[in-house]
Amino acid sequence: MASAAIGVDDVVDYLGRLGVLLETDRAFPSITGIMVREPIKGSWWAHPMANDIYALSQRLIAHPDTIFLKLLSGKTSYVHRRLWPELIAIATAQEPWQLGALPRSAKSMLKKVEERGTLRMDEVKGSRSLKEKSADARTLELRLLVFGDDVHTASGAHVKRIETWEHWAWRTGFHIEVLPTPEKAKEEFARIIEVINQEFAAAVTLPWQHGKLTKGYQLTTPSSKR
Predict the structure, then answer these.
(1) What sign results for the dihedral spanned by CA atoms 220, 210, 217, 53?
(2) Strand partners, 67
(3) What is the pTM of this model?
(4) How far apart are CA 122 and CA 105, in angstroms?
(5) Across the chain, which distance is largest between two alpha carbons, in Å?
(6) 168 and 100 in a common domain
(7) How many CB atoms lie within 10 A of CB 138?
(8) I want to staple 182 with a disulfide (CB 3.0 to 4.6 A). Which of 11, 93, 162, 170 is the partner?
(9) Strand-by-strand arrangement of the 147-152 sheet
(10) In this predicted model, what pLDDT tens digit does every residue of 104-153 receive, in sequence order?
């Protein structure tokens, strides 16, 4: 199949078989790899097919069977609906790897979003800069404590939004009444990632596979540099 003929349904089908995809990576299956069919050096935005890659990624984000988040090696990842129960079970467990050494400002932001369900960075009061607020939001995202995305304001600008997983489930119509245990869910994700890593000679990791976290974990695996 020529890359120009690849559509969102083809990618979702492939995602459904694997369970997860990265936005870009030199080894692990990714959107850029599907489109370009070879590793991209540097940012994919500089690639001649950047517009096609972006258009496909936007259609994938909007697809009802996919969710995008910072999951694999702290990079933008796509997870198929079949793994959402495991994902939500892990995300809502609030285990030590999620809450340990969480900065005070991030704790305060987490409390606010838990009270409100959803929170935009332009709604956070105080003297801290938007960059500082966004850094706390990213920390919460990396630990899977919230779901984050960008939304348009009335002025047309983009602003970061975070929400609890319960609010995300309500907004998307996904029922989370029956979930596996966090341990079973982590085992399933670990099994899937191990199989894909071995098949594609990749080195992708999951956030709970790292011991001590500080201000959002910083990975030093080879894939984190790709």
Answers:
(1) positive
(2) 79
(3) 0.86
(4) 15
(5) 53
(6) yes
(7) 18
(8) 93
(9) 118-120, 158-163, 147-152
(10) 999 999 999 999 999 999 888 888 888 899 999 999 999 999 999 988 77
